[in-house]
Amino acid sequence: MQKLISTHKEEERAILVCTAIPKSGTAKSVKQRIYKEHLDELEFLTQTAGAVVIDKFYQERDKIDSSFFIGKGKAEEIAGKVEEEDIDLVIFENSLSPTQIRNLEKIIKCKVIDKPALILDIFATHARTAEAKTQVELAQLQYMQARLTRAWTHLSKQAGGIGTRGPSGTKGPGETQIETDRRLISNRISMLKEKLKRIEEQRKTQRQQRANFTRIALVGYTNVGKSTLLNILTDAGVLVENKLFATLDTSTKVLKEINGKKLPQNVLISDTVGFIRNLPHDLIESFKSTLAEVVEADILLHVVDISSESFDEQIKVVEETLSEIGADAKPVITVFNKVDMLVESEKEHIIPDLKQKFPNSVFISASKGINLGSLYDKIYEIISSSIEEIEIKIPANDDAYKIINKLHLQTEIVDTKYLSKHIRLKIRGNKNELRRLVSGITQNKSRKEFA
What we know:
Number of domains: 3
Largest sheet: 6 strands, mixed
Strand content: 15-25%
Distance between the termini: 44 Å
Shape: globular
Strand order of the largest sheet: 6-7-5-8-9-10
CATH topology of the largest domain: Rossmann fold
CATH class of the largest domain: Alpha Beta
Helix content: 40-55%
Order of helices and strands: EHEHEHEHHHEHEEHHEHEHHEHEHEEHH
């Protein structure tokens, strides 16, 4: 079976479509703001994928049309615009079923994709490492598998483009054999899962070697300034672009001091892939090994673009995603970024209410260097409170040096005293990690745990 690869013609012309079923009692102004935000985000995604947006359509419905999603009349209206403007593709904010896509393309006469397919396409073009490419290909195949039917032969006439691309150097589903046997796809999915499992085992080993570090993960909606903040904290030199999903691969850097203050323990800080509303579930599943940096972090910095009109909804999306991956119980510092833009728009009056709603929060501008001292103090305070220093005794036997070597990897050994029958160690590290280690020793599991 051929891999998915990237081929596309330059600057496809696109029409965007958003359909909503408003809650009863929602004010017209609120509905207009919401659909504008959704279409603006979809436009940003489309531009990130390399297309130019020619027009946008919005429709309110009492219920979704099972055949066309938007209704046949609206589909015919869009079809007229497609012919008039020589449109290459129509992109829906909403997730579509294979039947709805098939029916829409019969009327509209051009390629129709939904937002999950668009996001997968962007991930495909931004995948750089072998791990990211594997994760994206797996998500693409799982997305395709659910939609692969004989009725998809119309795709064989397409010349690639957005929604059909694969990770760099691989062939996209729009250019492969559409009649591919499901068994071959299943085999490929199994192989990719095994490959990711091996990568995850390697990552686990790496993370065990980092046990004597406090780990911080930057999380947040896409394009809120996480990479900019990482660069400021660590001089990491991570790529910063005004594009959605510019960062796919986790960047992890060492943080030894903050604002000239030496930290009580070395810290690892990781930038992670941004979240977005309607992020395809298969993509979250495929990126579990990367998101493990978030799951195993001691502290989360939840970066929020306070200048966004929908930052409250973005916070909710991030919190829901954290819950889905099992990282919702972590200590969190909410970092409201881009306050300079809030001041420019004369909306800084919202800050007092946000401080009350998010007591463990700071308000900064990473790009302008505004109020970074407050963030440094907050990080220092939490790291200091998570560090503990304890004394333990281990038997002076043949296993003692194996235990000490392992402790060197997982804690900081502050002092060592050799007694007649025991070795007394003063160790410092993360409270939770120390509890796990001491529990293993006191329950007489030292041979098993440290061998």
